[in-house]
Amino acid sequence: MAQKSNLARDAKRLQLIEKYSAKRAQLKAIGDYAGLAKLPRNSSPTRRKNRCAETGRPRGYMRQFGLSRIAFREHAAKGEIPGVTKSSW
């Protein structure tokens, strides 16, 4: 499990991204880069970190499932992810 502070920080970033998304798009369309610089840094979507929905782990994230590789493997082994089977050749 990730540290609670890191999860809270990422949740706060997500709120700021949603809050300023319309204003950010408007400023980009105009080309007002000075206005963009005045917005909070954490309102930029690139500052958000992909994290596992279950554990909050930032590394080994599988975008298609929203899980880390470890959580994905556990769910796949239990048969909880439809269409995913263990491969053998």
Q: Count structural domains.
A: 2
Structural class: mainly alpha
- What's the tally of helices? 3
Order of helices and strands: HHEEH
Can you give the helix content as a percent range?
40-55%
> How much of the polypeptide forms β-strand, as a percent range?
under 5%
**Alpha-carbon Rg, integer:** 18 Å
Mean pLDDT: 92
Largest sheet: 2 strands, antiparallel
Number of beta strands: 2
N- to C-terminal separation?
Answer: 34 Å
Strand line-up in the sheet with most strands:
1-2
State the low-pLDDT regions, or none: none
Give the overall shape.
elongated
Explain what you see.
This protein is 48% helix and 4% strand. By secondary structure, it is mainly alpha-helical. It has 2 domains: 1-49, no CATH class; 50-81, Ribosomal Protein S14/S29 (30s Ribosomal Protein S14, Chain N, Irregular), CATH 4.10.830. A two-stranded antiparallel ribbon has the order 1-2. The two termini are 34 Å apart. The mean pLDDT is 92.
